[in-house]
Target: Carbonic anhydrase
Amino acid sequence: MPTESTARTLSPNEAWEKLHAGNLRFVNDDTEHPNQDSARRQSLLNGQEPYAVIFGCSDSRLAAEIIFDAGLGDMFVVRTAGHVIDPASLGSLEFAVDKLNVPLIVILGHNNCGAITSAITVKETGEMPKGFVRDLVEHITPSVLAAERKGITDINGTGVEHVKQTTDRLVDLSTIIAQAIEEGRTAVAGVTYHLHDGRAQLVSSLGLD
Model:
């Protein structure tokens, strides 16, 4: 398996181009499986220099290193159902930007998302789920309402809107990330993953050209 060095010096745009190229290899069944050998393991013993942080949905079909054809040490991955922001996930993202100097944050949603389906169902029926699933739904509901204001009511259109809303909310909540974007040290890319063909589509961005 080929081994590539991580590149802390990548610009946000170069980091996105690298991710996009990896996803195209995945879509076209031309994956290289980089940085997945013993030499790569040894090279990471003293630290990590990922070129992207992926904040994605926890869905089992959304394995970031696979769909972007990446390997060990390439990505700093944070996942919650419906990519809902909570204090732990926000702190993890700030750590990646402030301590690891990661040049790109990717908000990774997908079509046919179960968490978004639940939020739409609650909006339509008024029946709240049990336990902490309710907390997830309450965090996603503003995106459902924002989509409706734009005339969007289907699950996948709402999913795209939720990615966009998460992108904006992340910057609103974190002064660390907002400052890094302003200084050009990092950017945020909102991406929707298509389950049927494996394509990762850029739907919004902050700080990318």
The mean pLDDT is 93. Residues 66 and 172 are 30 Å apart (CA to CA). The domain at 12-206 is CATH 3.40.1050.10 (Beta-carbonic Anhydrase; Chain A).
